[in-house]
Design a protein that fits this description.
It is a multi-pass membrane protein. Keywords: Cell membrane, Glycoprotein, Ion channel, Ion transport, Ligand-gated ion channel, Membrane, Receptor, Transmembrane, Transmembrane helix, Transport. Pfam families: Lig_chan-Glu_bd (PF10613). This is Ionotropic glutamate receptor L-glutamate and glycine-binding domain-containing protein. By secondary structure, the protein is an alpha/beta fold. The chain has a domain at about 120-235. The chain has helices at about 35-45, 70-75, 125, 130-155, 170, 175-190, 200-230, 240-250, 255-260, 270-275, 285-295, 305-310, 310-315, 340-355, 355-375, 395-420; strands at about 5-10, 15-20, 25-30, 45-50, 80-90, 95-100, 105-115, 250-255, 280, 295-300, 320, 325-335. Strands 1, 4, 5, 6, 7, 8, 9, 10, 11 and 12 form a ten-stranded mixed sheet that branches. Strand 2 and strand 3 form a beta hairpin. Helix 1 (about 35-45) crosses helix 14 (about 340-355) and helix 4 runs antiparallel to helix 7. It is elongated and about 110 Å long. The chain starts with a strand and ends with a helix. The model has no long low-confidence stretch (mean pLDDT about 85).
Length: about 425
């Protein structure tokens, strides 16, 4: 192109970070994937890149008066020759604009506040999965029933008593009275406490030994889960589906209209409800920071942006990405329709993809971002591991307190009943 000047627009986005000169306040160079692609195109096509001032409306959208702002408006007004910030490939209702070949793919995702941490006072209860608690409780009732069945068989078959057996008047009681004692001893064995009176039959003693083995397994699982919960903090259940997102009542914030135009396009009640919750935020608003520290709302964002520039929020358990991704997009560069350089740029972009340059540029930017984040956040105050405190053991003291209160109330009731009957 013999150094022909091209008016190139590259504004701040996931893969582009314009660097402004501190003195002239002009764009000095473009950091990121899009900037490296622009340099390669300039080198191979031999044009002069005239970087335009980043448009404050970024991608652009239709105003109330029917005109377009941002890059869309610049293309319509013939103010830009080439935009090397990738657009979602969709219908923008602008006939004057044309897309390049596909550059890369991305997903639109929804991020919400991370679920709150489980309080230490109830952590011992919720550190164990509900199915394990259920298995433990069922085992207690089932084992007591099995033990009672063994007792009935022993009594009917008149099995010999052990040498250290209790008096026969214990066996003379009804089977329901004996079941109460068996039920109590079963749970005593399962929670690894010594049994005061052992059963009078040898096969029942063997059964108690099996209960002790079961209690060892359950106890080891409980203790390891509880220790892990105090080392690695546990949180309440996060939002997993769009239905749960709808039930949460969170408002969905977005910055760019192009992100939500076709986001919930299915004619379902769920998508209709989510559409009504969409709210447009200011173009310069820090949505992720508000979600992380204020909560009360969710945000529609690009998945690559979250992974590249906002991963510290995820690593620090401050935001959560809903796993159910509503939309995937292909992204391309744009320029005025029928531009004479479109074929050559498309050829070069396809060549960059075939040689693996674009994935390499993305990987390089990811490494640079990781190094920057490590440098930026390494001096943040880190919590040193500490031993358990009284706060961590609140539940144990609550159990002792309520147990003492109930025992005192039972003592008073027994004294009153005894005085009335005597």
């Amino acid at each position: 192109m013999r150094r022909y000047p091209l008016r190139v627009q590259i504004f701040k986005s996931t893969f582009a970070r314009p660097q402004i000169d501190a003195v002239t306040k002009k764009v000095r160079y473009i950091y990121g994937v899009d900037g490296r692609v622009a340099d390669l195109l300039q080198e191979y096509m031999n044009f002069t890149m005239d970087l335009q001032e980043p448009n404050k409306f970024y991608f652009g959208e239709k105003d109330a008066n029917g005109s377009y702002n941002g890059v869309l408006g610049s293309i319509i007004r013939n103010e830009v020759d080439l935009c090397l910030t990738a657009f979602f490939v969709k219908d923008y209702m602008v006939d004057e604009m044309e897309f390049s070949v596909s550059v890369y793919d991305d997903k639109i995702c929804i991020c919400t506040p991370k679920a709150k941490r489980i309080p230490d006072s109830i952590l011992p209860l919720l550190s164990i999965r509900s199915d394990l608690w259920l298995a433990f409780i069922i085992s207690g009732f089932l084992c007591s029933t099995i033990w009672t069945s063994i007792r009935i068989i022993n009594l009917k078959m008149k099995m010999p008593l052990t040498a250290s057996a209790a008096k026969k008047d214990y066996l003379a009681k009804s089977i329901w009275q004996q079941y109460g004692r068996i039920f109590n001893d079963t749970w005593v064995a399962l929670v690894r406490v010594n049994i005061v009176r052992y059963p009078p039959f040898a096969n029942e003693c063997i059964f108690i030994a099996s209960l002790c083995l079961i209690s060892m397994v359950f106890g080891a699982v409980f203790e390891s889960s509880l220790a892990t919960a105090y080392i690695r903090h546990l949180y309440y259940k996060d939002i997993q589906t769009l239905q749960e997102l709808d039930n949460s009542g969170l408002v969905l914030m977005y910055k760019y209209t192009s992100m939500v135009d076709n986001l919930f396009d299915e004619e379902t009640l769920l998508f209709s409800n989510l559409k009504r919750k969409l709210r447009k935020a200011d173009i310069n608003a820090k949505l992720l920071n508000d979600i992380a520290f204020k909560g009360g709302k969710a945000a529609v964002s690009r998945h690559s942006k979250l992974m590249l520039h906002s991963y510290h929020y995820i690593a620090n358990k401050q935001i959560w990405i809903v796993p159910q991704i509503p939309k995937s997009y292909t992204l391309s560069y744009v320029w005025p329709k029928n531009a004479p350089w479109r074929e050559r740029i498309n050829q070069l972009l396809l060549r960059f993809q075939a040689t693996g340059l674009l994935p390499k540029f993305i990987k390089d930017m990811q490494i640079d971002t990781n190094i920057r984040d490590m440098t930026k956040y390494k001096n943040e105050e880190q919590q040193d591991p500490a031993g358990l405190t009284i706060t961590d053991l609140q539940l144990a003291f609550y159990v002792i307190f309520f147990g003492s209160v109930m025992a005192g109330m039972a003592l008073i009731v027994e004294q009153v009943c005894f005085s009335l009957t005597s």
